[in-house]
Design a protein that fits this description.
The radius of gyration is 19 Å and the shape is globular. The protein contains 10 helices and 10 strands. The strands form 2 sheets. Strands 6-2-1-7-8-10-9 form a 7-stranded mixed sheet. Strands 3-5-4 form a 3-stranded antiparallel sheet. It has helices at about 1-10, 20-35, 40-50, 50-60, 70-85, 105-115, 130-140, 145-155, 175-180, 215-225; strands at about 90-95, 120-125, 140, 165-170, 170-175, 185, 200-205, 225-235, 250, 260. The termini are far apart. About 35% of the residues are buried. The longest helix has 15 residues, at about 70-85. Helix 3 (about 40-50) packs across helix 4 and helix 5 (about 70-85) packs across helix 6 (about 105-115). It has 2 domains: about 1-60, no CATH class; about 70-260, Vaccinia Virus protein VP39 (Rossmann fold, 3-Layer(aba) Sandwich), CATH 3.40.50.150. The chain is α/β, with parallel strands linked by helices. It is about 40% helix and about 20% strand.
Length: about 260
Amino acid sequence: MEQLLDDVLEMYGYDFSDYTKASMHRRISRLMVLDRFPSFAEFRYKLRTNEDYLKRFVEEVTVNVTEMFRDPAFYATLREQILPAIASKPFIRIWHAGCSTGEEVYSTAILLKEANLLHKSLIYATDINPEVIKKAKDGILPLGYMKDYSENYIASGGKEDFSKYYTAKYDRVKINESLLERVIYSTHNLVSDSSFNEFQLIMCRNVLIYFNKDLQNKVLTLFDGSLENLGYIALGSKETLKFSAISGRYKQVGKDKIWKKQKEA
């Protein structure tokens, strides 16, 4: 497996070497079964000689599990505490790192809209996987998901009719352009790419759990350098800033996995 990951890094520039070994092994094994490779050698040969197959490899080994208003209590804290704290800024920049297919990006845009902040905000949505970035840009979702997403929205404190934020057609829905137009999408590799702006809020939820400790520290240091003083970092429910290289500069907001950067001396 390490030889395979070395191939991917050397030939294509994707560095998966610091992803947790167990989860990477599990995902590669699953892909080999799905695509019916008779041996690991043939799988490796295909990846080395077929650049188109790399797209499938990246799509399968990077985890893309997401939903709108995932963890409603988290979004309630965003709504009630974090957005009011940054509302006085003349311009608001938010980075969704590892945005997957965009559901959490749309959720943040809805919160900004309801707080009357969307017009002076930009959301930067990035992911290593160009295929999921394309899906996020399109803003098209299955209609069958909307019932659960509506329930999440209400549980997060939403008071509007959730259906006002999308248009349904047959078995699909299209997120309103008024939400999508405040989002900038781009591929970005947290392992190798650098900071590209200064933000008031950085959200990277359920990505770090797939990285080893050294890579987690590297990514958190990148976030620290991308966040203005008194800005916020939001992580997933099983992730933490505690024990990281930057933890001394941050204070947790209540019980949520949100940390506020303290003003430097």
